[in-house]
């Protein structure tokens, strides 16, 4: 009981930071509880009861049950322990608690340690869940993990699913020697001829949705940059919470070389992270950074020797994934506040509109043609 009271008292505090759940969210959560496939256990049921009562009726207002009425006494104690917790906060806490119990349709539960569950059946983007971590892997090693149009959409979907599953965090990494060589330049040539405007519009829509999903991702987002990263696989790092890198990784944003312009909010996040002087050299002149330079400029959290990267990073992440998930999410929402997210969405929209026009430019078409005809490589 003491544990329950402590838990609820903690939620009083946390709840003040996030009063966001609407009545509709709450009603949905109530329905979801009835559909739970697994019994969440008595402790959780008591927490749910107390939060439900507080959310719907306010502070405990009924007499204390008799000493031998054990069950009702435990429930009453839990409700009473919420004191004057505001109804909206109780509603939010109820929704949070339910969402931590319910895996989304595609998602698995956290799973037992050591058991890995594959969540998305795609060859090029592999999504698994293990030890509280949803892992999204760029898996086109023979093409240096270049990102096809389909992969953007699969990643967007995987992130949306991961935002609701029971994992504590999501980690991106690459299979093979590259993290990712960025946008697959053949995306440009798989356009039905004569329809380049339509291609550019569709590309901008897909890109915008992709980046919006990173901006809104509510849980810790970590990149394990196992090798060179190019283009959009670099710019998205500005939207991650933590970036670990191999000492073999490099960071290259050759937008001007390709007749293109920055995306994934990097025109905003990079100057903020590393200061305009360094960001300009990367984003305008395409200066490639080593892992050490990226660390010095704040884009990378920590660099590991390539030989120990996997062992060290995954051990650390597994430990982090055991931290209380709601606390991590709430901390993230304080760090990336709603006004900051609003700004990021506006930057994303502007960058996508700019790129849509750029993709129709002679500079861009010439650069892609050169790559395709094997005349140019970065
Ligand atoms: C719709 C949303 C758009 C979002 C906007 C995004 C923008 C960006 O991401 S800009 C950055 C785009 N990326 C590039 O320009 C990289 C192009 N690739 C290269 O310059 C080189 O391949 C390399 C430096 C990344 C690696 O060189 P190397 O080690 O010599 O390996 P290969 O060139 O032989 O590559 C093996 C194989 O992979 C293919 N490939 C690699 N990267 C891409 C790519 N980005 N797009 C398409 N294909 C790529 C390469 O063509 C080789 O294929 P095969 O010849 O068939 O073996």
Automatic annotation (TrEMBL):
Source organism (scientific name): Jaculus jaculus
Keyword Isomerase: yes
GO MF annotations in UniProt: delta(3)-delta(2)-enoyl-CoA isomerase activity; fatty-acyl-CoA binding
InterPro entries cross-referenced by the UniProt entry: Acyl-CoA-binding_prot_CS, Acyl-CoA-binding_protein, Acyl-CoA-binding_sf, ClpP/crotonase-like_dom_sf, ECH/Chromodomain_protein, Enoyl-CoA_hydra/iso, Enoyl-CoA_hydra_C, FERM/acyl-CoA-bd_prot_sf
UniProt protein name: Enoyl-CoA delta isomerase 2
Similarity field: In the C-terminal section; belongs to the enoyl-CoA hydratase/isomerase family.
Keyword Phosphoprotein: yes
Its EC number(s): 5.3.3.8
Pathway(s) annotated for this protein in UniProt: Lipid metabolism; fatty acid beta-oxidation
């Amino acid at each position: 009981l003491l544990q329950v009271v402590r838990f609820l008292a903690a939620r009083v505090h946390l709840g003040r930071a996030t009063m966001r759940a609407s009545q509709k969210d709450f009603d949905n959560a109530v329905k979801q509880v009835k559909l739970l496939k697994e019994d969440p256990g008595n402790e959780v049921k008591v927490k749910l009861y107390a939060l439900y009562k507080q959310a719907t009726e306010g502070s405990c207002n009924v007499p204390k049950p008799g000493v031998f009425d054990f069950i009702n006494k435990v429930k009453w104690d839990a409700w009473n322990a919420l004191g004057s917790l505001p109804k909206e906060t109780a509603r939010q806490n109820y929704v949070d608690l339910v969402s931590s119990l319910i895996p989304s349709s595609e998602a698995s539960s956290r799973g037992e340690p050591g058991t890995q569950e594959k969540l998305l059946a795609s060859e090029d983007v592999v999504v698994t869940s293990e030890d509280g971590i949803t892992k999204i892997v760029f898996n086109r090693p023979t093409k240096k993990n270049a990102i096809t149009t389909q992969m953007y959409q699969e990643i967007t979907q995987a992130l949306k699913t991961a935002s609701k599953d029971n994992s504590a965090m999501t980690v991106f990494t690459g299979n093979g020697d590259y993290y990712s060589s960025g946008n697959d330049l053949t995306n440009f040539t798989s356009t039905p001829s004569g329809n380049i405007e339509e291609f550019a519009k569709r590309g901008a829509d897909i890109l915008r949705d992709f980046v919006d999903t990173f901006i809104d991702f509510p849980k810790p987002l970590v990149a394990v940059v196992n090798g060179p990263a190019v283009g959009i696989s670099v710019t998205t790092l500005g939207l991650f919470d933590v970036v670990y890198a191999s000492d073999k990784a490099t960071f290259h944003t050759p937008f001007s070389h390709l007749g293109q312009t920055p995306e994934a909010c990097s025109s905003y996040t990079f100057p903020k992270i590393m200061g305009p002087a360094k960001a300009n050299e990367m984003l305008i002149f395409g200066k490639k950074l080593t892992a050490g330079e990226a660390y010095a400029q704040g884009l990378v959290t920590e660099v590991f020797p390539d030989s120990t990267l996997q062992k060290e990073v995954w051990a650390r992440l597994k430990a982090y994934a055991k931290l209380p998930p709601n606390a991590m999410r709430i901390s993230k929402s304080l760090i990336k506040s709603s006004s900051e997210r609003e700004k990021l969405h506006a930057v994303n929209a502007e960058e996508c509109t700019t790129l849509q026009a750029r993709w129709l430019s002679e500079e861009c078409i010439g650069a892609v043609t050169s790559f395709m005809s094997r005349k140019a490589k970065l």
